Amino acid sequence: MKVEPLERSFGAKIYDLSLPDLEQEQIRELYDLWLEYALLVFPNQNLTTDQQISFAKNFGALEFELSPISNVRNDGSIRDANDDDIVKSLRGNMEWHHDSTYMPIQAKGAVFTAHKVPSKGGETGWADMRAAYEGLNQSMKEKINDLSAFHSYEWSQKERFGHKDPKVSEFNSYGFDIDPKPLRPLVKVHAETGQKCLTIGRHIYKIPGMSDQEARNLAQELEEFACSNKEWVYHHSWQEGDAVIWDNRCLMHQASMWDLSEGRIMYHSRIEGDPISEAASNYL
Asked: Measured over all CA atoms, what is the biggest interatomic distance in the chain, rounded to whole angstroms?
């Protein structure tokens, strides 16, 4: 295989490799590359959904096998850009976040594939929380090293975007009803690499010892810092058939806006976190 590092603090594009035909030695090599680069981009793979699931399972058990991330209904029609709950979830995904920090166990990673892309926009961005932590000044590190935050999808998505009652909504409300809200350190140690990284993003709800406004101000300050350095951020312009895998433990991600009258069809497989290292502190 050919490995082409991105001109960033993380990430690489992988060429000359067929993901459905991997041998065990190649899987081990990819896993090591994934831990090193955190994001691997595989252009022009054109995976079927079954092939995507099989590939994702090489990196661990799955939190869920496959979920469409799409504004296109099964009949091919485009969803309402303003009132549809599925589109509201897409709008929420345009804010920086880690997957499943609002669940008792944070996700380990994810595989994402592009099946239909708009003519413009719709990129996916990632930000390196390892580099961001290292880049903080010492006073900020000392301020946050012992702080934890509650994460809530009910707050970040349901309350802020005004979802309908689940009985009449097409959105499955996954993660809305988690109680108590998971409590996670702002600074975590990656279980496999030992590197310190930030765990922040849109799901931060409250920080014990702070008012709600102070907590949100701090979360916003950290996010703006982490996503302001071009060397720490990469936005991928999708081509149909592209596949990626990222390490959710040390990268945040976001979707970019596109003309919502155009269809965008992506598929997401979420890799389950370790039940001990990725458990929220109030669930251990």
From this structure: 54
Dihedral, CA atoms, 171, 175, 252, 116, nearest 10 degrees?
A: -20
Q: Report whether the peptide linkage leading into residue 275 is cis, meaning its omega lies within 30 degrees of zero.
A: no
Is 102 inside a domain boundary?
yes
Whose structure tokens read 């993660």?
175
Q: What distance, in Å, lies between the first and last C-alpha atoms of the chain?
A: 40
Range of the domain at 209: 2-274
pTM above the 0.90 mark? yes
CATH code assigned at 117: 3.60.130.10
CA pair distance 227, 169, nearest whole angstrom: 33
Structure tokens at 196: 């310190």
Per residue in 167-182, pLDDT (tens digit) is: 899 999 999 999 999 9
CA angle 2, 6, 10 (to 5 degrees): 110
